Amino acid sequence: MRFTKDHEWVAVEGDVATVGITAYAAEQLGDVVFVEVPEVGKTVKQGDGLAVVESVKAASDVYAPVSGEVVEANAALGDAPETVNATPETGGWFAKLKLSNPSEVEALMDRDAYEAFLSTL
Amino acid sequence: MSDPDLKKTPLYDVHVAAGARMVPFAGYSMPVQYKDGVLKEHLWTREHAGLFDVSHMGQARIRGENPARSFEKLVSADYQGLKPGKQRYAVLLNGQGGVIDDLMTARPDDDGLFVVVNGACKDNDYAIIAKALEGEATVERLENRALLALQGPEAAAVLAAHVPEVASMVFMDTAALTAFGVDAIISRSGYTGEDGYEISVPAADATRIWNTLLEDERVKPIGLGARDSLRLEAGLPLYGHDMDETVSPIEAGMNFAIGKSRREAGDYLGVERISRELAGELKRVRVNLRVLEGAPAREGAEIADETGAVVGVVTSGGFGPSVGGAIAIGFAPPALSAIGTKLKVIVRGKPQAAEVVASPFVPNRYVRKL
Questions:
Q1: Nearest Cβ partner of A36 from B39, B229, B295?
Q2: pTM to 2 decimals?
Q3: DSSP class of B334
Q4: Which residue of B38, B133, B206, B217 pairs with B225 in a disulfide if CB–CB is 3.0 to 4.6 A?
């Protein structure tokens, strides 16, 4: 798993990356009451808006940690947005992207680097 | 992290020690939530009792020969008719009938009027009031007092255990009394739609009283996040969002803020516009919306009619934890304001179905008689 400074995670299998937000981000957001996931077929560049998570108080953008085409979105979050809080780094994933530039993944932080980054916040 | 430009209420250290997330609000560093988070804090207040620090709000005394008559030059309410021991809502008006602030005024005792205004507006309010009342009444800011709100169905039982007198008060009663061993001003009122009290105490005693109330297991500290979702569900407009200097109290649906005697006398600021609006001549009115699909519509989201034409805007919106869905307050033309009217809210470019519903979104539970 790789991580961004915006607290997204990426898990790569073959040429498909699953994307979600980290436990730290989920805790900061508070109780998630709505998730807007991208449509399948949408193409995103690294840093583009990919999804929106909403707490009682505010809407927050989730950015694409890597570039690619959306091949699957987590429809289960429609009925159960709280999954993002309960299991942010497993069941709370937002989308799967077919990587258009796999080298972007290597440039992201590994878990140790992300944990070190968190300790600076 | 503490921002040196932000003021602190007397309870700042208590909030930080409790693990609150502090945010800038009205020039103060205020707790937006504690460890439980907005959703649980909201629901706790609806079921039990929530304790809020609202010491950022302005507390003042207006004194003079006839302070109520003097103050009426600026506000909409009948304050000359305000009985001792009572509190009444009003708006501070500009000459065009727009709202400079909304406020509560009480007569807790014989010491003039006790006025509570919004934190973000207080400096401007007091300057306007002092100037307009110069020579006939004075404004004393009570900077050395804290303001707590205890809200929820168990608030009365909790507070009466410490201050037995509060049990016999009804909604909008206000009393100056000795509570927790100090001079307090307590009103049975609040901003959540629930029964409850607002408690003004000396700043030096605020922490002790806060902690004493929290010893009761029915009470939890509640942040500004839940205060906002609670007031939104209660259909209560928030100054600076649902009301401002361009919005009249009639457009905002606060007709009751214009006292009957004041309407008859026509002696308030902005009477030309407001009397016209009271007679039904309105271009826009406040609507309460239930968002029926998609994301919550928040402040700034456009409101459209069924054809997609933009007809208004959301001024407060979010997720209502007790409603269990997205709700919003906004403005729309009167022809589209009837309960049941189908509208759209546009969120991130997408039109979503919404419907005009009655206010409040959840029934209020004020104790109007015992």
A1: B295
A2: 0.96
A3: G
A4: B38
